[in-house]
Amino acid sequence: MSHRDDTPAQESAGQSTEQSYGQSAGQSRRGFLRSTALAGAGAAAGGAGAAVLGATPASAAEGAEATGATGSARTGTWRPDTEALRFTLAVMPDTQFLYWGSQDSVNRTPQEASFRYVVENSGDANGDNIVFMAHLGDLTQDADPSSFQQVDKAFALLDRHGAAYSVLAGNHDVSGDDGRGDTPYLRTLGPQRFAHAKTFAGADPTGYNTAHVFRAAGRSWLLLALDWRTSEQGFAWAESVVKAHPKLPVILTTHDLVYSDYDDNVFPYESGDPEDNAVLSDYGRTVWDRLIDGNDQIFLTLNGHYWPPARTTAKNAAGNDVHLHITNYQNRYFGGGGMIRLYHFDLARNTIDVETVNPWILAQEPESRSGLAAEHARITGPVDSFSVPIDFERRFSGFAPVPARPARPAARELVKGTLAYWRFDGQGAPGTALTAGDTVRDLSGKGNDLTVVTLPGAAADALTWSADHHPDQPAHASLKFGGGRNPLHGSYLTTGARAPLNGETFESGYTIETFVMLPLDWDAGNNGWASVLSRRGSAGDAGKHGKNTDPGEPVLQLSISNNGREPQFNHYPLNDTYPTTNWGHGLVELRWWHLAVVNDGRRTRLYVEGAPVVDNPNRLSAGLTSLGLPWLVGGHEYAGAVDMVFHGSVGDIRIVNRPLAADEFLTAR
Q1: What span, in angstroms and rounded, lies between the C-alpha atoms of 90 and 339?
Q2: In whole angstroms, what is the distance from residue 548 CA to residue 500 CA?
Q3: Fewer C-beta neighbours within 10 Å, C or N terminus of the chain?
Q4: Can you say how many angstroms the Cα of residue 127 is from the centroid of all Cα atoms in its chain?
């Protein structure tokens, strides 16, 4: 059965089980085994692991930081990297069992250990780059003023170090809805606490609903911290805050939203779906209907209150995913011991990697930990450690679209040493065909124009103009090739018989660039090894021999292999009789890729999207062998005859007689 929060100290609203509302989200695993940042906590905090809950009296806890027992002297400063594409949101669920003042049962040590971890890991050097921390409510068990006095002292650690954080009230902190008026919670953690915080964006008139804006990955993010029971005026206020920040992605935190629908005595260790095991509560349905569903900016919600942890994904009114997560460990060892959930946002990988750690236990010397404590240092079940794939740009495009990069004139791309520059804009309407004899001019002015060659029996649309392009391509156009080898068909382009480029040998180095996209119907057997760009003349005719030499293959070819759609640059240098071959990684279909080959006169390097590939041979490779024959775009020959035509799209092509740095590529900003 699902476990819910125990009876609140003052009031609890009834809940009912509802049908699960959502779609499953993807999952993968990546370890985040970090403990070095906790070394400063010392063995003094570690000794608490053997104590019973509440064994540290408030008076002793008050002096712990001042005496160095909690390691505050080594806590460091708040220093997140707000521009890095990787950052972390720390989430702390219900810590109520650490604060039960009316029972004289208070222990700040575990929570303060987590707070120190948050501050210590705010820098990118440690890999976490924590930029914000959100508490999910139920800070106390009894809402007693004495409990909040101790909570106040714990959060003062974050305040002293300038950490950015939010809090909200749970049902053990308050009663009724946000119109309740004055409470110990409000006096301790109300808006006045954030008056000087740079991330504080305001509160509603009651003070129980707050908004926070933090910067990460070069943009601003809005986090709403809503009350345990938000009234109509509170929802209206939240709506107004979202509308006042129309381009900001929104994370919504509240105490009660979804609950788990599985028995933690069985799942997730033996059965069930770790990606779809949360259900909207009665109140959660209200929050969904009143605020989440109609605001596409809200992409992630976090709540505590219930246990065990769970998650699901629901579609909002715009048809986009909203990830709904519950995290709560109050039923675990030491009331959760200040456990924190770390949401590692990786905008480079379009993923949020999630892990659950207990900094208080990790700070203890391993030999001093009890067996139960050791089990809870990191929680690694499928509902505690997982990954959420999110294409951030696409998910946020409805309210914060990324401006398309405008096309750039050809003259801007004619860097020193440009020998050929072919692009396909302004010459034909998208979808219309090129026919035999059509010409594509060389915009470098060097006279290396291309002419269309159509094979017998080619389809009418074997080669067409297209408006499709790589987002960083100078020209917003391309050519779409519909070729193949079985049977041989299609159209390709060739330089003229007397084109100056034909005789170039590039002794001082070169850079060759282009853009490619492979269609879904690309077939290894029919399209593998077709060339994007090649040079006529066979290796045998050029007198090449030795290891890996195929005498019938062309002296140069930039091709797509039949094994995983890998780009390959195979060329015969001037200094040797056998080829140098550079291999890239597999290219995903329906995505544009920028390919660049750079030679500095000694070594040849292949780049994909500006990054060097792993298989760049470290051998002398000077110049390019030439028989004075034409270059082909989209064509490949063997033993002197064209034997296959490229299948896919090709964008701008530029050939330069010197090595270029990555910031000089056609993709450069």
Answers
A1: 10
A2: 30
A3: C
A4: 14
Is the torsion defined by CA of 404, 410, 413, 418 positive or negative? positive
Query: Tens digits of per-residue pLDDT, 380-409?
Result: 999 999 999 999 999 999 999 988 999 999
Structure tokens at 445: 């002015």
The separation between the first and the last C-alpha atoms of the chain, rounded to the nearest angstrom, is: 56
350, 436: one domain: no
CA distance 532 to 472: 19
Q: What CATH number does residue 628 fall under?
A: 2.60.120.200
Contact in structure between 89 and 221 (CB atoms under 8 Å): no
231 CB neighbour count, 10 Å cutoff: 18
288 DSSP assignment: I
Report residue 31 as tokens: 């370890």
Report the C-alpha gap between 151 and 567 in whole angstroms.
Answer: 59
For the record, the structure tokens of 81 come out as: 């990297």
> Which structural domain range is residue 195 located in?
36-395
pLDDT tens for 50-107 read: 232 223 333 333 333 332 333 334 567 899 999 999 999 999 999 999 999 888 899 9
Count the alpha carbons within 13 Å of 127 in the hemisphere toward its beta carbon.
9
Instruction: Tell me which DSSP letter residue 494 carries.
Output: E
How many Å apart are CA 409 and CA 475, to the nearest integer?
8
Sign of the alpha-carbon torsion through 63, 64, 69, 70: negative
Q: CB-based contacts of 366: which residues, under 8 Å, 6+ apart?
A: 374
Tokens 């010409």: give the residue: 439
Domain-embedded: residue 404: no
Rounded-to-integer distance, Cα 137 and Cα 106, Å: 17
- Reference 141, options 177, 185, 172, 118; nearest CA is 172
Which residues on adjacent β-strands are paired with residue 176?
Answer: none
Burial call 91-112: b when 16+ CB within 10 Å, e when fewer: bbbbbbbbbbbeeebbbbbbbb
* Burial bucket for residue 338 (CB in 10 Å: 0-12, 13-18, 19+): buried
| Domains: count for the chain | 2
- Do 53 and 157 lie in a common domain? yes
Taken in order 549, 552, 557, 560, is the CA torsion positive or negative?
A: negative
pLDDT given at position 268 = 52
- Beta pairing, strands 631-633 & 604-608: unpaired
d(Cα 101, Cα 141) in Å, to the nearest integer? 8
Q: What's the whole-model pTM score?
A: 0.74
Amino acid at 464: T
Distance CA 207, CA 595 (A): 55
